[in-house]
Amino acid sequence: MDAQLGRVLDALDKHQLWEKTIVVFVGDHGYHTGERQWWNKNTLFERSCRAPLIIAAPGMKGGQTTRSLAEFVDVYPTVADFCGLKMPHTAAGDSLRPVLADPTASIKDAAFTLVTRGDKLHGKSIRTARWRFTRWSDGPTELYDHETDPEELHYVSAKHADMVKELTARLQTVGPLRP
Predict the structure, then answer these.
(1) 20 to 30 A Cα–Cα from 35, which one of 16, 77, 87, 129?
(2) Cβ neighbours around 26 below 10 Å, total
(3) 35 close to 9: Cβ distance less than 8 angstroms
(4) What class is the 109-179 domain?
(5) Where do the domains of the chain lie?
(6) Closest CA to 102 of 52, 72, 59
(7) Count of CB atoms within 10 A of residue 85's CB?
């Protein structure tokens, strides 16, 4: 894959197409490799939910990183925005153009993830700048504070009941707990 991507990028350079081209590179988060004794990718921990997203677009400075939350559903509105296309309907995501123009900008205050385990068990997670809250269809919930625990090793639900209540309500806005 690396070699083929290099060929595409070289062709963009050679034919001076950067001002007419948007490159979107989406990566996979990969498998857990023994963390918490997991060897698959159907968890709702940060290591399983977070994946690479790289976008190069005309007029945007390259080589920048951001801490802004983004979701893959933001890719379609971003491409439409750069192409000057009117969205034919309301999209699930938002254009990342403001973040690409200014990496300190933020377009959303939360990102959502859904995971299924077999036919019956499902989990939803909401990630904000500080918190990750997960609710499983069989009842358990998990709250992690990324300011003090970026590895998500300690549940803090008991200490932050108000945050559990707020994030539970936010998860309910994205539909029922099912795939």
Answers:
(1) 129
(2) 11
(3) no
(4) alpha beta
(5) 1-108, 109-179
(6) 59
(7) 10
Angle at 138 between CA 130 and CA 51, to 5 degrees: 40
Distance CA 113, CA 126 (A): 7
Q: How many CB atoms lie within 10 A of CB 76?
A: 15
Kindly state the tokens that stand for 67.
């801490």
Q: What is the pLDDT along the chain (179 residues), one digit of tens a residue?
A: 778 888 998 999 999 999 999 999 998 776 777 777 777 777 888 888 888 899 999 999 988 999 999 999 999 999 999 999 998 888 889 999 999 999 999 999 999 999 888 888 899 999 999 999 999 999 899 999 999 999 999 999 999 999 999 999 999 887 655 54
The three-class DSSP label of residue 44 is: coil
Dig out the tokens for 19 from the structure.
């001002």
Sign of the Cα pseudo-torsion (146, 149, 153, 156, in order): negative
